[in-house]
What does this fold into?
Amino acid sequence: MLLAAGLAGLIGSLLLLRNSAHALQGQSRAVPGAWLAAAFLQAMVMSGALLWGKVSPGVVFGYINLAQVLAVSLVWLGAGLLKGDRRPVWAAFVPSAIWLAACLWPQVLAVQPLRLAILAPLIFGPLLWSVADLFSIWRRRRVRAALDMAILVGVVAACLLATVLYAIAVPRMPDRPGAVLAGVAGLPLALYVTMLPFLMLSVVREFDTIEERGRREAALQAGRREVERLHAGLPAIVFLSRITIDRDVLHIERIYRGGDTLVVFGWAVEDLAGVTDLQGISDYGSESLVAHYRKTIEAGEHSWEWRIRRKDGGWSWIRTRARLLSVLPCGGAEVVGYNLNIDRVREAEARAMSTARLASLGEMAGGLAHELRQPLQSISLAAEVAQFKLQEGDVPAASTRLDWIVDQTQRTSDLIESLRRFARGAEGDAGGQPVCVMTVIEAALELMRGSLRNAGIDVSVAIPDPQLQVHGQSVLIEQVVSNLLLNARDALVGRPAEAARRIRIEAASGPGHTVRLALSDTGGGIAEEVLPRLFEPFVTTKGPDKGTGIGLSICHGLVKGMGGSIEAWNDADGAVFTITLPAAGVDAAARIAQQAAAP
It folds into this structure.
């Protein structure tokens, strides 16, 4: 039995030596190497005793116990190294050296009480210490193999202690009870020698696995902290969220958010702790956040602009761009994206639109002067006639002239109001509302009538339904139509005198709850090489002294911002611009779909 245990321990020690791990702190080969020597010593002594039978029982007992003392000391050494104690390898050989020195004294092997008195501390001391260390490893690192080994070592220690105490109490045992006791003592000893190398190998491997997992988690956390540190310096907020939409209810589980929230949102990161959808401080306009995320999931990518109330009470504009990362089995989705503060962008766009409006007013100045001068001349003439009639006593004739003066004054006032509204532009926070198409076109023509008449241009309007309405902002639509009229005028002025100079404006309901407004001219059309880039900034067909190239780009942005689209192409006579806007009364979801489909 002890020979088989020694051979099994030999194999286990070889495996431990071959699979030595980092957990033993550079001494991983010394520990299983010494264990291999102990198992080899035990196997050789038992082989000699069985094969030749000339080895005395005392020698067998001494050298077998020498192997056991060394094995127990190695368990103590390995457990200490795993626990983190820095124990030198040579300390494991001290108990073996003490036992070897005692065995050289003949009386030690001959006198059983003396033999046991020396052997018991050398075995039980490291055993109990090892059990404590292994329990500590299990408790601190949750290494299950360490608990199993501690239980086994404790059972072996208890069996050996019972055997030692029985041997001391009954020095001389009959042959049969002695054989039974030897078997009882040999069984745990054999199990002990056989299993310890394998258990130590499993403890080391599991310890290394846990350590490696801990190192990976530490590296992951360090990487995450570094990413968060880098993102904290970005003037943007990067996010990863798990989105679930249950009908019209949005559930957002924030997985990650990094960036300078104070710069982007106007709130410190601690102020937003636990906040996911910014309810109460956000304004998404007519389209809800649910609709935006639903479009992101359906189209794979989506962007939108919204407002957030800063901590100081003001408002900031945010542009969010989100992309679908993955669709989850539960029906939700993982969405990644970023938020940018676009206050400066919006201010720049507002300045650009204001510049474009002022440029349009400058181009309309001649026509506007004529439109204002004509009613003023009429008023002046009517006032002189009314004064003359009063002097003659013809009160009815004077009253008629005064009524004419009132009408012309109202006309002038309306023209000035249209001019003032056009120059002021739309309110930055104004939302869309029903707008009568005919009213907007008449307002734009009122501003442009003099300029178009001076250029000899004939304007025709064909709107079958005078009550046709779109969803948008009247001032912005008026600005777009005025810009298109100015461009058509410039194109027609360059035509030969005998060529027809006509502008036609049409409006009618379009497919999918939309309204299509078309403006065509007979100006010869747009160069084919310019058409694909017509709505890009600083693209113009005019000379450097006549155009900046931002008018159509601004028109494109204004129409798209209202959920519509604008297109241009050439027909047989000239250029055709088509504006498509949502019809009034269309719900938010339909407007989102139209806006996403707009080029």
Observations:
- The chain has three domains: 2-216, 233-341, 347-597.
- Residues 1-31, 588-592, 594-599 have pLDDT under 50 and may be disordered.
- Residues 175-232 form the longest helix (58 residues).
